[in-house]
Amino acid sequence: xxxxxxxxxxxxxxxxxxxxxxxxxxxxxxxxxxxxxxxxxxxxxxxxxxxxxxxxxxxxxxxxxxxxxxxxxxxxxxxxxxxxxxxxxxxxxxxxxxxx
Length: 100
Hints:
Blueprint: E1 13-18, E2 41-47, E3 51-52, E4 58-59, E5 68-70, E6 77-81, E7 84-90, E8 96-97
Antiparallel strand pairs: 1-2, 1-7, 2-5, 3-4, 5-8, 6-7
């Protein structure tokens, strides 16, 4: 069983896995680890049911499992599941999603 299947985010929280950093340029030059930029793209692996508004109705989360999203440079809560790093963000903190 995969780690994120054992973990369900609460309310409007979204669990994401950051995509791997580029280690080679398009020209084939290796990029040192210290020079690699922070990866702001991630894949959504689990979503909460949504937040409750003042009328008591649930507002669903804007992303779904499998979406590729753009994250803010800072923020999120690191969660380690089965020795892998995941991050929890609020739905409103996600900057956008990539459409294919």
